[in-house]
Write a structure and sequence with these properties.
mainly alpha, 71 residues, rod-shaped
Length: 71
């Protein structure tokens, strides 16, 4: 909506103009979150912190433990 509250040519009412501006802002915010979320989550997996496995040591395999439930 224009600062003075004037109606732009393509809208029939001020309410329609406000709803369209609000919808446009929400769409913009959602696309920004999707874009930057993808950039942040696309970092290489090698840079993620690797936590040690508990119970069976650092190199776990089904054969290295006596029972899979205890690992």
């Amino acid at each position: 909506m224009h600062r003075t509250g004037e109606l732009y040519g393509q809208f029939k009412t001020l309410e329609q103009q406000k709803e369209t501006a609000t919808l446009g802002m929400w769409i913009f915010l959602i696309t920004e979150v999707m874009f930057f979320g993808g950039i942040i989550n696309s970092r290489p997996s090698s840079s993620r912190r690797k936590l040690p496995r508990s119970g069976c040591g650092s190199s776990w395999s089904p054969k290295s433990c006596s029972s899979a439930a205890s690992c």
